[in-house]
Amino acid sequence: MADAVARRQIRDLRIRLGEQGAANRQIALALMARFKLTPLAAFRHAAGLSQSQVADRYNERWPGQHPKTFKQVSYWERWQGPGSSGTTSSRPPSYEDLRRLAVLYDCLIDDLLSTTPAHDRPAEVVGDAAEIISAVLSGRYAEGPEGDENGPDIALLVPVGEGTVTVKLSRRHFTELLAAGGLAALLPEAGLAARMETGSATAAYYRHFLIAHQSNHHLLDPRTHITALRQVLQAVDQQRAQDSAPGPRAELRLVQGEYAEHISWLYRETGDLAACRTWASQAAGWALEGGDTTMSAYMMLRGANLALDQGDPQQAIELASTTQNLSLHIPPVLRAVALAYEARGHALTGVLESAKLDQAAELITDDTTSSEQGYLRFYDTDFVDVQRAACYVAAGPPERAVTILQGKITGLPASHARDRGVYLARLGAAHAAGHVPDAAAHAGMGSLAEARHTSSRHVLAELGRLDATLMREWPHQPKVRQFHEALHDTLAA
């Protein structure tokens, strides 16, 4: 009886969300959050299929010697996912079975394997999944039709209790929602606007707002994030001016440094390197005033990174080496970043420093303190792998860079378009270094699509360097010409 009630509730929620315009993936995530379903069960329900119907469709489309039954589907749905073993009542599906189920459910294989890990969840927002989606959709913040002038859709992960649901918005609607303060109902900074108005926001509240923007940097044009963050930064400054207590004033100064650091990075994405350096300098100054010497050292490495982008190995090596030799206490992860940048600088001179890259990977793997500085939490072994790939492109062998970058691109979440653009541009450079111009141009076209999608001038700058190499070596290759013309059309637009 209880199972029948649950099935009816699941069906009612699926129908209700479907009538409101929610996509299957949104519905599945809502079901996972509300009813604690496994992904395999949630996506089946979202598709409106019973276990018997899944078995029938599976057998009809892929007939074999051992037809599937509803019991087999039930075993799969009781499996708790990667890392868990089968039991008498649960069995993991094979990769081929997963691929076929993804076809039947109109989703990705990753969707059937992944749940949101606890440490990746945003702060909890109290509310009902269906009510949140309904409120957003009824407010006309639904995804637009194909080719809508509002631009491509984005997916917003909304925390609900112990899980998340996904709401799709057009970029224009998302920007309007951000400007109107509507995100306070969806993102972890709920209540910040009201606290800012009364001057009662704490450093922790301001950091929650910053972390939300850092975590969702790939959803919007960088300038939209910059505008929102600078507005909050003004409020922090006003509150600091009114607070006479030394402790809170110093903590708010540290918060300002953290905001300035992220704004500096965002300006780099817009291609405004002068503003990037200005805000990096501001971040270093505020950090020193607040007692955060790690941030000051990190901003020195921002300069090293910019030098690498501009092909200045000597300045990059000097800044990275100086950072490592500072007498200040610097966490291992930051020393790893310095080692990686130093290795890249040497690679630009033709010298492969594998030992430095290996040491950087060890430091990052062993470091357990990087979470203490939020701006360092993005540096992990993937970062070192990508830096290693850049070294292989510059100093050889480039085919190793191809292997690394292809793996990283495959593993990126669909929403990380800006990272994908960077990786594809570097993959193109790796193919060019390996004298495979068609593959390089193909990767360049993929990167260009992501650059247009994210308005990333940083990616376009990388593509400009790739284009220069291809046109110098293979100017008459058809695919190279196609990429060259597409890039220049984009730059001229």
The helix/strand series, from N terminus to C terminus, equals HHHHHHHHEEHHHHHHHHHHHHHHHH
Q: β content, as a range?
A: under 5%
- The geometry reads as globular
Strand order of the largest sheet: 1-2
> Using DSSP, what is the number of strands?
2
**Cα-based radius of gyration, to the nearest Å:** 25 Å
Alpha plus pi helix count: 24
3D architecture notes:
The protein is 67% helix and 3% strand. The protein is mainly alpha-helical and 493 residues long. Among the domains are: 2-116, no CATH class; 188-291, no CATH class. Strands 1-2 form a two-stranded antiparallel ribbon. β1 (153-160) and β2 (163-170) form a beta hairpin. The longest helix has 25 residues, at 246-270. The model is unreliable at 116-152, 159-165 and 176-191 (pLDDT under 50).
Structure summarized in a few sentences:
Helix 15 (293-309) packs parallel to helix 17 (332-348) and helix 17 (332-348) runs parallel beside helix 19.
